[in-house]
Write a structure and sequence with these properties.
Layout lengths: L12 H15 L11 H16 L15 H12 L4 H27 L2 H13 L1 H6 L5 H17 L3 H14 L5 H16 L11 H11 L3 H15 L6 H7 L6 H16 L5 H10 L13 H20 L12 H16 L3 H17 L13 H19 L5 E4 L2 H6 L12 E4 L4 H8 L7 E5 L13 H12 L7 H8 L1 E9 L2 E8 L21
Parallel strand pairs: 1-2, 1-3
Antiparallel strand pairs: 3-5, 4-5
Helix pairs in contact: 1-4, 2-3, 4-5, 4-7, 5-16, 5-17, 7-8, 9-10, 9-15, 13-15, 14-16, 15-16, 16-17
Amino acid sequence: MTSPQQSPRQPSPWLVFPAIFAAVLLAHLPLLRLPYYWDEAGYYIPAAYDFFRTGSLIPFSTLSNAHPPLPSLYLALWWKIFTFAPWVTRVAICALSSVALLAVYRLSIVTTRKPKVACATVALTALYPVWFAQSSLAHADMFAAAATLWALALFFEQRIWIAAVCFSLAALAKETSIVTPLALAAWQIGMLVKSRPGPSTNPTSPRSHLTKAGILLLPIVPLACWYLYHWHRTGFVFGNPEYLRYNATATLTPLRVLVAFGHRVLHITAHMNLFVPVLSMLACMMLPPVDDRKRISISDQLQFYFVILANLLFFSVLGGALLTRYLLPLYPLVLLVCVNTFYRRLRQWLYLVALSAVAFLVGLFINPPYRFAPEDNLAYRDVILLHEAAIQEIEVHYPDATVLSAWPATDELSKPELGYVTKPIQVATVDNFSLPQIEKAAQLTDPYTVGLVFSTKYDPPHLPLSLGRKNERLDTRFFDFHRDLPPDMIARRLGGKVVWRADRQGQWAAVLHFDRPQEAMATERDRVPFHYNQP
């Protein structure tokens, strides 16, 4: 581990951060005015908006999932200074991503002492599709990544107390971030078992390892305090029972953990063209080192790998959805090892950096030949534009209708603060657009006369890497996989017709109309337009 005395001289953060922030903001400029998407709309924006309006740390306009409140505090501060609008939120997340990239730069400098390697690692991290997409989406994961990466950089500088503060902030941004300091504490305890007696000032002495392990366990305290407060206010420690079941108690079967771990390994080595730098690194390892170029120390590398493994195992056991953004702090570690290997083993190492950058740019715009969450690249923009267009069609032609739809469109229609409608539209709800749910919709007593149906996942036909029916059965059993019916079939089964449809790169949305009576349900309050600049 690099000591404070050995730490290389670094450019001032006041010079590096503005350059990073300007580049990130410019790259995301076309995305800044998009309304909110998926889990943004379902939890994080409503939770932050509740705090912004009332000061409540516990959201009430959506079910509380017991997520810590730091993201809500951060967003509410930006809205207070500027205004409540999607572009303010997205600029705030771009700034947070830039803080995280500055941490990547510092961590790279500390562990490699090579500014060129640090710059290349920052560039590849910023371009990696999962990171790029999350750099403008208001999920807790970028908050946690920024704090965790700063904690790691400070930890490898042996500034343990400040690292513990950053790990505490990470835990107060997202509770699952606690796995990283716990992994490093476990590593220190392992080193304690292996170490020999020596002076306590020696960084490898048993007492030093024990002290570091104790400090790294301190972030448990603020997280426990938050859960105690949440229990006091709601009666639930870990959020509503359905959330706990989906993300914890329903995931604890050996086969499910094994399948999830296989997915996680692919996420951290191959997903969204990450296989390009990873395979290039493996190929470079067959070459001899160039001159006296140094590797990242074995100790630092082993701690990287231990943190990565701990996170992969943790997110294979917990978390109902296999979302790649849960692994956001890990991607810079993988890319740092790859880039430093390029540098150490190949004189023309920048060619491999450029090749990886091109692969990531391709992954941003071209969807892979397998199912994935649209939030992993710019496919999320396609979803938003489809939903915007469909909702505009409803607002123009059926403004007083009750609309049959599924989440998140039900929130998009009924909550003007999400940016899709100017006044609430009544909704009738189904879980998705699979055959069982459409049959359920046929029995609903809600007097809906319009339907907004859409692809709930990226699932184009004839996927070459779908891994067959057996994999689909496992995904259905463990990860809520289902097949959406096409719009025309939904319309036939519900006695309606398709009046509007649009497709974008394997995803679709459609508006259906049903000839059935409906009572007027709009009120004068509902007709008051919503404006983002209203507090």
